[in-house]
Amino acid sequence: MKFCAVEHALPSKLVTNEDIIREILLKSKNYLTGKALDLLEKTFEDLFEKSVTSIRYHRGENEKALQFGIDAGKKALESANMSPDEIDLLIYVGVGRGFIEPATANVFQKLLKLKNATCFDILDACASWLRAIHVAQSFIKTGMYKNIMILNCEFNFKEYANFEFRSVADVESNFPTFTIGEAATATIVSPSQEENEYYADFKTWGEKHTLCKIPLPNINEYSDGELINIPSALTFFSYGEKLFRFVFSKLCRHYKEVAALNQFKHEIVFSHSASDAMSDRVIDTCKLGRETAYNIHRRFGNTVSASVPLAMSCAIKDGRLKQGTNVL
Fold first, then answer.
1. pLDDT single digits (tens) 238-294
2. Distance between CA atoms of 44 and 63, rounded to whole angstroms?
3. Do 125 and 48 fall within a single domain?
4. Is the pLDDT score of 230 beyond 80?
5. What is the distance, to the nearest Å, from the Cα of residue 258 to the centroid of all Cα atoms in its chain?
6. What is the CA radius of gyration of the chain?
7. Owning domain of residue 267
8. Distance between CA atoms of 273 and 186, rounded to whole angstroms?
9. pLDDT exceeds 70 at position 196
10. Where residue 90 falls among pLDDT bands split at 50, 70, 90?
11. How many domains is the chain partitioned into structurally?
């Protein structure tokens, strides 16, 4: 499997940490004392510094999520020198969507005029793009599909964010919300003559589902218990510190145990952009070399399933990612 194109599209509104904190304090002033508001402000400032969060991009006035997905898709087709008719499978991935069914992929199949493509969605939170790459590689290997577009449109911030803090303690389950940035990406993959050019290894610890979630109204019908009383449906919560501590140890152990990973001679490393500080810690612990890291959290925040392809797209434009580069 080869990557024919990795492109991205960003909204226009640059949002700073100060912008986020200002709105939180405004929305929370009816619930907290002046002293508590000061503590809340200081807590957010410290956490943003710790996670190396700086800016992120959100939709500006009159900007609509759909337009960025279309823009990314058209850029990818142009970059791959392909017509819409040449795409035979579209996989839409990620959290960003406006309805549960039918598949959001149907909308983009129509608007990008991919008339020869069948389509479906893959939803696995921030891992959605990586899961889709794995599925695409399997399809290509069997010869079922030839040119596959993987598209996401992660525009999820204000729809799922809760700016009203009733207690400073709420930061524990709400801070990661405010590191979220928005972006759309489109990736096109096709068959390759090269052997052993792709390898992936996944692990899942399902018992940790309580650490990060966007609940639906009927969550009680499908949950075996939560860490908190769910504030309201469609409100994102995440225990970032607990999640990072758990993932860090598991990820480093996984890397060290899999020879296909730890013996691979990588030239550049892309990680999920939840935190540049966490990415650097993993890179140091696994002895991957800071010089190989390509981190983008400081530039774009956490763009959910768009984070890895967004980084790859930027690295291509920066000249860091080229044909034949060994990528981890």
1. 999 999 999 999 999 999 999 999 999 999 999 999 999 999 999 999 999 999 999
2. 28
3. yes
4. no
5. 24
6. 20
7. 206-318
8. 17
9. no
10. very high
11. 2
Other Cβ atoms closer than 10 A to 111 = 14
Q: What is the pTM of this model?
A: 0.96
Task: Write the CATH number for 124.
Answer: 3.40.47.10
Indicate the angle between helix axes 34-51 and 276-285, nearest 10 degrees. 40
| Residue % of the chain over a pLDDT of 70 | 99
For residue 188, pLDDT beyond 70: yes
Residue-wise pLDDT for 20-30, tens only, equals 999 999 999 99
Give the per-residue pLDDT at 228.
81
Distance of CA 153 to the CA centre of its chain: 10
Residue 300 pLDDT > 70, yes or no? yes
The type of residue at 235 is: T
What would the two tokens of residue 133 be? 């790459």
Residues 112, 237 share a domain: no
Whether 323 is in a domain gets the answer no
